[in-house]
Amino acid sequence: MTLPVLYSFRRCPYAIRARLALAAAGIGVDHREVSLADKPAAMLAISPKGTVPVLQLDDGRVLDESLDIMRWALARCDLQGWLAAAPAEVQDALIRRNDVDFKPLLDRYKYAERHPERTRAEWREAAVAAHLADLEARLSRGPALCGDRPSLADAALFPFVRQFAGVEPDHAALAPLPNLCRWLEGWLASPLFAAVMDKYPPWRVAAA
Known about the structure:
Order of helices and strands: EHEHEEHHHHHH
Number of domains: 2
CATH class of the largest domain: Mainly Alpha
Number of helices: 8
Radius of gyration: 18 Å
Distance between the termini: 24 Å
Shape: globular
Helix content: 40-55%
């Protein structure tokens, strides 16, 4: 059987969470690493919006939203029980707040020089207030965001918390959030994360 083709970029948080779900489901892919400065024509032909991840299934269908890829993979084989770890509406609300409210603040915190209407510290505090403070409170009650075991929401949010923590040296921004810091360190040390962070050269069409 032909493997699904995954267009990805190693450091992109959307691509990371898609790869986490594919790996957790035990689904192999034909990995094609994308250079964002030189996106392959084959990817643009199936997903003109030009963002990663993009998954082309062996029946020709194309999934070009990270959550669609995650849910497709887990619907096939949810080995770790992520979908059942918490009610779907609870998980969906966390993911929506991450993607809609937190991500723009994360971008402004990361690239504060482009958004001088606030200082970097002010953008950081806004991101904490909008999203991370609630995650900290949740993790004071259990080891995962929705209780005793990881869920789809944990995997979907982790790459963005990782990106937030990497803006300042030594995860200094997470110092006031010890439970979130422990949760992040657990994901960073996991074999699953290591498995999806292999380095690939940019994919190119083989010369004829």
